[in-house]
């Protein structure tokens, strides 16, 4: 049995998508955009562009590391190579636990959101939301087990949908603000 990864499984574009998706940009933007707009105002796009540079750097670094030391362990294998077995082991387990906790804690809200799309009254049914969440959990697991090629293609589709939604919301927000003005103008008195 070969322990080598299949060469050229991911294109550079797919590597970028996988790297960016791992940082959850949609969630990050949703959590941080109000504070960013309050602090930076009209120069907020500049701040986003500035922070895009490190993300691109991380993507390029992952691509380079994968080219030099291609392995399924990625970050924990690189940590082991650079800092020793203990830190590699710790890094691997930290990634595994973080992924497992996210998968479990992310699948139940996903079940709730799925049910909420069809019938908001059923979204409070714990057994139903847990069951739908478990189906999502298993589906995601099957995709991951199938391999990186399918996973990356699905991630490209999901990231594209996410970006289209974010773009649509951004355009709608700019249109709304341009036509009717801000719903509630910012004021420092909000902070006491």
Descriptive report:
With 192 residues, the protein is an all-alpha fold. Among the domains are: 37 residues, no CATH class; 77 residues, no CATH class. The protein is 77% helix and 0% strand. The protein has seven helices and no strands. α1 packs across α3, α1 crosses α7 and α5 packs across α6. It is globular, with a radius of gyration of 20 Å. The termini are far apart.
Compact summary:
With 192 residues, this protein is mostly helical.
Write the layout of secondary structure elements.
Elements: H1 12-21, H2 25-40, H3 44-68, H4 75-83, H5 85-118, H6 126-146, H7 148-180
Helix pairs in contact: 1-3, 1-7, 4-5, 5-6, 6-7
Number of β-strand runs: 0
Evaluate the radius of gyration: 20 Å
**Major sheet details:** none
Q: Distance between termini?
A: 65 Å
Overall outline:
globular
Strand content: under 5%
Structural class: mainly alpha
This entry's quaternary arrangement is single chain
Poorly predicted runs are none
Q: Which series of helices and strands comes N to C?
A: HHHHHHH
- Number of separate helices: 7
Helix content: over 70%
Mean pLDDT: 81
């Amino acid at each position: 049995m070969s322990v080598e990864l299949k060469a050229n499984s991911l294109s550079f574009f797919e590597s970028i998508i996988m790297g960016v998706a791992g940082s959850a940009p949609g969630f990050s933007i949703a959590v941080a955009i109000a504070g960013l707009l309050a602090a930076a105002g009209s120069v907020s796009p500049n701040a986003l562009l500035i922070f895009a540079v490190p993300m691109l750097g991380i993507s390029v670094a992952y691509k380079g590391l994968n080219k030099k030391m291609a392995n399924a362990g990625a970050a924990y294998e690189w940590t082991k190579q650079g800092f020793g077995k203990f830190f590699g082991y710790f890094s691997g387990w930290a990634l595994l636990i973080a992924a497992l906790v996210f998968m479990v804690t992310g699948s139940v809200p996903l079940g709730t959101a799925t049910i909420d799309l069809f019938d908001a009254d059923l979204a409070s049914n714990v057994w139903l939301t847990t069951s739908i969440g478990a189906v999502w959990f298993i589906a995601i697991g099957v995709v991951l087990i199938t391999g990186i090629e399918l996973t990356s293609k699905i991630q490209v589709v999901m990231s594209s949908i996410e970006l289209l939604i974010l773009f649509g919301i951004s355009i709608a927000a700019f249109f709304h603000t341009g036509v009717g003005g801000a719903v509630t103008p910012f004021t420092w008195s909000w902070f006491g």
